[in-house]
User: Which sequence fits this backbone?
C-alpha cells in the first residue's frame, strides 16, 4: 500500500495513465458529467471531500500547463475564485456552457463532494521535463 500521495487506487491509476495535453475535469457534485471520460467519483456526502482538498491533492501529483473555469464563478462563488486564482496562475475563464462543452474532451473526471456552485475546473496536463 502507498504511504504517501493519493491513496484512492482508481484515481492513482487514472493519473498514471495521463499524458501531455490530456484534460482532467475536477468538478462539484452538481456538474453534469459528460459521457466518455473515465470518472472517479470521490463524493462521500455534501462537502466531503471539498473541491479545495481534491484540487490540492491533484496539483501535488500532476504537472498542469493550463486551466479553464466558468466565468460565473467570480460572482457566484468568491471562495472558489480565490482558490483557483491562487493555485492556477493564468486561469482562463469561459462561460459555463462552454466549460461543459470543453469537458466532453476530458480524459478524466474527478467528482468531489463540493456543494457550492461553479467549483469546477478543467486542467490541461503538462510534462515534467
Assistant:
Amino acid at each position: 500500500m502507498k504511504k504517501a500521495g493519493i491513496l484512492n487506487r482508481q484515481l492513482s491509476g487514472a493519473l498514471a495513465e495521463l499524458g501531455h495535453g490530456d484534460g482532467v475535469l475536477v468538478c462539484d457534485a452538481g456538474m453534469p458529467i459528460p459521457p466518455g471520460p473515465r470518472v472517479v467519483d470521490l463524493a462521500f456526502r455534501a462537502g466531503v471531500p471539498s473541491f479545495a482538498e481534491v484540487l490540492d491533492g491533484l496539483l501535488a501529483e500532476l504537472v498542469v500547463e493550463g486551466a479553464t473555469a466558468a466565468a460565473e464563478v467570480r460572482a457566484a462563488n468568491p471562495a472558489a475564485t480565490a482558490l483557483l486564482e491562487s493555485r492556477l496562475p493564468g486561469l482562463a475563464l469561459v462561460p459555463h456552457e462552454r466549460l461543459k462543452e470543453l469537458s466532453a474532451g476530458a480524459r478524466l473526471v474527478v467528482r468531489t463532494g463540493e456543494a457550492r456552485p461553479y467549483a469546477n475546473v478543467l486542467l490541461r496536463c503538462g510534462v515534467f521535463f
Notes: The two ends are 28 Å apart (CA to CA). The chain is about 30% helix and 20% strand.
